[in-house]
Amino acid sequence: MKATLMYGAGDVRVENVADPVIQEPTDAILRVVRTCICGSDLHPFHGLPEMEHGVHTGHEAIGVVEEVGSAVKDIKVGDFVVAPFAFSDNTCEICQAGFQTACPHGGFYGNPGDRGAFQAELSVVPQADGSLVKVPGVDPETASEELLASLLTLSDVYLTGYHAAYMAEIKPGQSVTVVGDGAVGLSAVLAAKQMGAEQIILMGRHQARTDLGREFGATHVVSERGEEGIAKVLELTGGFGSHAVLEAVGHMPAYTQSVGVVRPGGIISRVGVPQYEEAPVGFMSLFGKNARLAGGPAPVRQYLEQAIQDVLDRKINPGKVFDRTIALDDVPAGYKAMDDREALKVMVNPAL
Amino acid sequence: MKATLMYGAGDVRVENVADPVIQEPTDAILRVVRTCICGSDLHPFHGLPEMEHGVHTGHEAIGVVEEVGSAVKDIKVGDFVVAPFAFSDNTCEICQAGFQTACPHGGFYGNPGDRGAFQAELSVVPQADGSLVKVPGVDPETASEELLASLLTLSDVYLTGYHAAYMAEIKPGQSVTVVGDGAVGLSAVLAAKQMGAEQIILMGRHQARTDLGREFGATHVVSERGEEGIAKVLELTGGFGSHAVLEAVGHMPAYTQSVGVVRPGGIISRVGVPQYEEAPVGFMSLFGKNARLAGGPAPVRQYLEQAIQDVLDRKINPGKVFDRTIALDDVPAGYKAMDDREALKVMVNPAL
Q1: Using the beta-carbon criterion (under 8 Å), do B279 and A283 form an inter-chain contact?
Q2: What mean pLDDT, rounded, does chain A reach?
Q3: B270 neighbourhood in chain A, CB within 8 Å
């Protein structure tokens, strides 16, 4: 089969490799219907050390189950499923509490990794019963591109934005600031809108993206950054700042901006993977104003059934974050297009 | 009148000074019935630079209103009140949301400061209507020492522990770890018990204090610190850690310990004033396990009516944290006793 491997920063190759096989009785093999490139794939694309053998890439997919291990009971061959970007048993105390990305029997696949790397024709999914969720009543052969795109976002990007909003405990009527106009930030706007936020301020400066942000529900766009951006948001919020700040970038300036625009008692919810370990949390930043810090890798599995239903009911159409569809062979060019910000988010159709 | 002033680290003096006067129409003058020394008073006691004029100290009091400014409507001369350690208008959007310590028209008094410094016979309270809360049906002249002690804790220490528990969103049946066996930590144990925590692990090593912690509801005491202490708590919590961690110290080792013992998705709630500005919050500390960080200066005013009622109903007896009562003249010795950990918390009776 064809699969994508990364051999170092900027070095992405599509190669013919052996088909994956069931290794654990809880595994399933997925034929990938659609996969995509994630903003977080750009981190190794920038920084992966050069290596001889390469690592398999990709962690987002919808697909059809080709084979299941002997212990897989709920997921059947032929099921059309969404695969969360992390696997989990979905039965332990941590999963039941809704934090499947911290499941002691789970983990992150792909990016990098050799089990469950989805930028390929086929992939192994560990803990298939605890991870995969069937999409009821949809045949991927006849489904619209729009529907497939929206279902694919439930693997990571939309539900990561949703997780930001969920952990920020957004209540109807509140003011929300979203930091970052990437696909996750725009998803966070859409999720905040779903939760009834009254004011949604999107901090971003790429017009095509902020235009989609407005379509998703942003009431204001602030293109200024740093102190200037903070002043603008404070002005829009009566001097207080927002109840919820959804941070979808992961770099320190986005954190600093979030601290500046969160109101006393408000919540900063981060889903951009932090590219720092230490940050200000003392009296002058979080503590003095009782601001809270939340967020982490989205437990997509927790939100998946409801989100699939919302997509099927056309309540949300998060697939609009994709602005390009390519074949597997073009994945290296897709990385470059996202890195150059020519593309917002690139979908991959292995059948092309 | 007699008042306490600090002239530098370790230099606390009780002096005769002019009686305070009403300066703003929203001020009231309070005759202090009981005040006390706070763990946070020990920070300037350790680090205040030497100064010529000294600063007035103290921020916790119960007292009787002697005089009110022309704009004070609800609080009357003769009222027996609890004074929160911060003042607030209690009408603005931030106060109404329950974060009075961040009121844009409020502030912290005492410690250091010359308005509302309570280690004195008399003190000015700014924003009297928004800050003071009357204790119904109690005459401080005839009330028991036990009742006065418990009411005094509502000025700061008990409700600061309560705030830690409240912001940690403790639910019945949960596991809670309290870091620190000072008066705030013990108060946090009591508050966690009130909220229905099933397992309360107190991390502390002073037996007299941990004994009171057990009386307040601690089910386990862990005297080990650092990695050893973390391992002990993980062992007591099935390897997962606690749902809520109440950090009542403020130093970096307490933060690190809190990160180590919080379970995935759990909340670290800090009320120990951080003696650091930066701390680990990235993938390896908070983000990876979706742990949350909450807390700040307790909005005592928000919790005060209910807490006064709970004390009057004898539902809680937080005054047990006081293990000594002294006269104003003995305040310098009181600081030393707390600093030497001879005393857990020192009450001051200006009438002695």
Answers
A1: no
A2: 96
A3: 287
Residues of A in contact with B92 (CB under 8 A): none
Q: Tell me which residue of B38, B151, B83 sits closest to B300, measured CA to CA.
A: B83
On whether the CB atoms of residues A130 and A89 are closer than 8 A, the answer is yes
pLDDT tier at A113, thresholds 50, 70, 90: low
pLDDT class of B115 with cuts at 50, 70, 90: confident
pLDDT tens for B144-154 read 999 999 999 99
Alpha helices in chain B (DSSP H): 42-47, 93-96, 128-131, 145-153, 157-167, 183-194, 207-216, 226-236, 252-261, 300-312, 331-339
Mutate which of B103, B199, B270, B277 to test chain A, going by most A C-beta atoms within 10 A?
Answer: B277
Over residues A46-68, mean pLDDT = 94
Query: What integer pLDDT is reported at residue B113 of this predicted model?
Result: 58
Per-residue pLDDT at B114 exceeds 80: no
Domains of chain A by residue range: 2-156+299-348, 159-295
Query: Are the Cβ atoms of B280 and A277 closer than 8 angstroms?
Result: yes
Q: Do A279 and B284 touch (CB under 8 A)?
A: no
The structure tokens listed for B279 are 């701390």
Chain B CB contacts of A294 below 8 Å: 290, 292-293
Contact A278 B278 (CB under 8 A): yes
Taking the Cβ of residue B290 and every Cβ of chain A, the question of whether any pair is shorter than 8 Å is answered with yes
Question: Residue A231: which pLDDT band, with cuts at 50, 70 and 90?
Answer: very high
Q: Does B99 touch chain A (CB under 8 A)?
A: yes
How many interface pairs between A and B have CB atoms less than 8 angstroms apart?
A: 125
Q: Do B291 and A295 touch (CB under 8 A)?
A: no
Mean of the pLDDT values across residues B149-175? 98
Give the class (CATH, top level) of B2-156+299-348.
alpha beta
What per-residue confidence (pLDDT) applies to A110? 61
At residue B165, the 3 state secondary structure works out as helix
The topology under which CATH files domain B160-295 is Rossmann fold (3.40.50)
A285 — contact with chain B (CB < 8 Å)? yes
CB contact under 8 A, A97 and B265: yes
Pairing of strands B324-326, B346-348: parallel
Spatial CA neighbour of B62 closest among B141, B146, B154: B154
Query: What's the average model confidence in pLDDT over B291-316?
Result: 98
Using pLDDT thresholds of 50, 70 and 90, give the confidence band for residue A150. very high
Give yes or no for residue B221 having a pLDDT over 90.
yes
pLDDT mean over A9-18: 96
ipTM at complex level: 0.96
- Beta-carbon count within 10 A of A243 CB: 25
3-state secondary structure A295-340: ECCCCHHHHHHHHHHHHHCCCCCHHHHCCEEECHHHHHHHHHHHHC
Q: Give the pLDDT confidence of A294-345 residue by residue, as tens digits.
A: 999 999 999 999 999 999 999 999 999 999 999 999 999 999 999 999 999 9
Query: Which residues does B192 contact at the CB level (< 8 Å), separation at least 6?
Result: B165, B170, B176, B178, B200, B217, B244, B246
Instruction: CATH number for A159-295: choose from 3.40.190.80, 2.60.120.10, 3.40.50.1400, 3.40.50.720.
Output: 3.40.50.720
